[in-house]
Amino acid sequence: MNKRFTISSTVINLSFMVYCALCLIPLLVVLSISLSDEQSIFQFGYHLIPLKFSLNAYQFILNGNSPIVRAFLVTIIVTLAGTLLHLIISSLFAYSLSRNEVKYRHIVSFLVVFCLLFNGGLVPWYILLSKYLHLKDTLYVLFVPYLVSSVNVLIMRNFFKASIPESIIESARIDGSGEFHTFIKLVVPLSTPVLATIGLFTAVFLWNDWFTAALFIEDGKLYTLQFLLQSIMNNIAFLQGNALTAKAAAAQPDETARMATCIISVGPIVLAYPYLQKYFVKGLTLGAVKS
């Protein structure tokens, strides 16, 4: 029995190692290209280790005249503001639905589930945001439509009902604590796993979102990083802007700049993931029934 278990564990571990390698190797190749000299890429092709090390692509992208810097700042602002407001609004909404004393909470919960299954579609959504809310070509349109998510509200509601002891809420009320004070001082500290998990998922979505900018943004100063990356992948001249001469344009990095932009776009998420990974085990059991 132990021998079979050992063999099974070895096979599973090797399978995961191969899978991890398949996931990491493309990222390492992209990183290697971004750190390579442009001419070496054209002459010798792609390599896992740069044949000729160069930071020209990053210097070109991060210079003060590059639209990448502005798009990077816009994306950071949208991600931080959108994630913070999403957690505040969704958690307050979910907490109210988890309280038994709230009237009509079942009706509101039904509406939340209904919105999860059905929606008005793209055209009504576009008309609402552009014509009636006047959010088109503004920074707010990039995160305001995503301040509430039906899925996240239901997940948080189930977590509050299953993981927050009723005795804690009652003790706070006996001590004279109001609902908002109880939520801030007691519920939020106990809800770190769900808040961290939902926060990371929301941040990844906002960081990678390019479709909203493609629909509503016409001002180049409000382009997000991912939308700009889409343009760069189609035409590197968009990154270079208005080159003064054809010779100057030819001297600029092309393939390495594309890969450097990819690395810059995924860098913050890759760095943030290890700090929030410890909450994922608890986050995967959100809403589980506890005895």
TrEMBL record:
Domain ABC transmembrane type-1: 72-275
Main localization category: membrane
Keyword Cell membrane: yes
Keywords: Cell membrane, Membrane, Transmembrane, Transmembrane helix, Transport
Cell membrane is among the record's keywords: yes
PROSITE patterns from the UniProt entry: ABC_TM1
Parts of the chain that traverse the membrane: 12-35, 68-95, 107-127, 139-160, 183-207, 227-245, 257-276
Topology with respect to the bilayer: Multi-pass membrane protein
Compartment(s) of residence: Cell membrane
InterPro entries: MetI-like, MetI-like_sf
PANTHER family, alphabetized: ABC TRANSPORTER PERMEASE PROTEIN MG189-RELATED-RELATED (PTHR43744), POLYGALACTURONAN_RHAMNOGALACTURONAN TRANSPORT SYSTEM PERMEASE PROTEIN YTCP (PTHR43744:SF9)
Name of the protein in its database record: ABC transporter permease subunit
